[in-house]
Amino acid sequence: MRRLSGATVLWPWKEKDVPTPSTDAIGKPLSAAIQSPIRGITLMFVSTLFFATMHAIILYLTQVIHPFEAAFFRNLFGLVFVIPWFIRFGLQPLQTSHFKLHFYRSLVNVVAMFSFFYAISITPLAEVTALGFAAPIFATVFAALFLGEVVRLRRWTAVIVGFLGTLIILRPGFHEIGLGQILVLTSTIFWAVALLLIKQVGRYDSSVTIITYMSLLQLPLSLIPALFVWTWPPIEIWIWLLAIGIIGGGAQWLMTEALRSADTSVVMPVDFCKLPWTALLAYLVFSQVPDIYTWIGGVIIFGSAFYIALRERKVDAERTVASGQSPEENRP
Questions:
Q1: Which helix (H) or strand (E) holds 263?
Q2: Staple 39 to which of 79, 261, 317, 321, CB 3.0 to 4.6 Å?
Q3: Nearest-angstrom CA–CA distance, 290 and 274
Q4: In a domain, 223, yes or no
């Protein structure tokens, strides 16, 4: 970690003009972005509506085209959020010495995305959302097993409780576990791996570089499987294909800005709003009604994931203090 212009560089650029530590990817001062809890809560709340809307549109699209095609178009039109960076900064967002990490992250992400899109097409939306909250739980397990991260009793307890929430939703032995549920869990596991890869590559490259490579690499990687099931989408759904790219990109940006605007403990509880938003849209548009087990399991999984996030935040703060820095200097 180094300092420049009085600000801490967490995701350092290698060239001086893009973006400086005192500004974010679109030129807004970081100091203005990290001191408004109300702004963070609002942005996270809107992001949950965006995510729920995107999932509902995906379900509609997968009734017309194959889920793999829908995933490809999500990546294609998601480039709308990357192109402005090239216009402003040229090719500098592509500067990296860790291309392999970006490639592995994108490959894992594509597997997670394809599994998720297919799961949405055959599984109730609310159930997909509830099970999806388990990604941080799997990430904690993988970090302990493969990265040697120290996970103490409290976080292991939260992991076990989170898995119990998953069992409540799936109810093995009492309820048939279908392909959709398996695909959701597969997506969640691969997304957990992606989270760890993001953490690794984030030590070297900026968030703009990470997002840029993700967008550019996922496009050809998602095209290859889509070609095997390709049929040209009818003209009337192109607007919805464009929508999942724009809404999905907007949801990611809103969530990122929310986490920059306030502490994790302030904004992350709002992320649970994805479940009621999704349940509402699923009911209004597709007449899907989630059962009580989905709600109970979803609450348990989310609560466990949230507690894990808080504990990781506290551990990071303690490490920062031990290294002689102010905890505020490590805020994202």
A1: none
A2: 261
A3: 14
A4: yes
The angle formed by the CA atoms of residues 142, 143 and 144, to the nearest 5 degrees, is 90
Q: Which two tokens stand for residue 53?
A: 């809307």
- Determine the Cα–Cα distance for residues 82 and 73; give it in Å rounded to an integer: 15
274-286 and 37-61 are packed helices; what angle lies between their axes, rounded to 10 degrees?
Answer: 30
- 275 and 130 Cβ atoms separated by less than 8 Å: yes
Q: For residue 41, what are its two tokens?
A: 């809560």
Sequence-ordered list of residues with C-beta below 8 angstroms from that of 165, at least 6 positions apart, any chain: 134, 296, 297, 298, 299, 300, 301, 303, 304
Tell which wins on pLDDT, 139 or 237: 237
pTM of the predicted protein model = 0.81
pLDDT tens readout for residues 157-180? 989 999 999 999 888 866 778 899
- Contact assessment for residue 148 and residue 120, using Cβ atoms and an 8 Å cutoff: no
**213 within 8 A of 95, measured Cβ to Cβ:** no
Radius of gyration of the chain (CA): 20
Closest CA to 159 of 25, 51, 304: 304
Range of the domain at 47: 26-319
pLDDT given for residue 305 in this prediction: 86
What average pLDDT does the structure give for the chain? 82
- Compute the average pLDDT of residues 194-222: 88
CA distance 21 to 8: 7
Residue among 26, 83, 42 at smallest CA distance from 246: 83
Compute the distance between CA of residue 93 and CA of residue 223 in angstroms, rounded to an integer.
23
Please tell me the total count of domains within the chain.
Answer: 1
CA neighbours closer than 13 Å in the CB half-sphere of residue 67: 19
State how far the Cα of 88 lies from the Cα of 313, in Å rounded to an integer: 33
Is the distance from CB of 197 to CB of 108 less than 8 angstroms? yes
Question: What are the backbone dihedrals phi and psi of residue 29, each rounded to the nearest 5 degrees, phi first?
Answer: -60, 135
Question: What local confidence, expressed as pLDDT, does residue 130 receive?
Answer: 93
Backbone angles phi, psi at 178, to 5 degrees: -95, 180
Task: Please say if the pLDDT value at position 100 is more than 80.
Answer: yes
What percent of the chain is predicted at pLDDT more than 90? 46
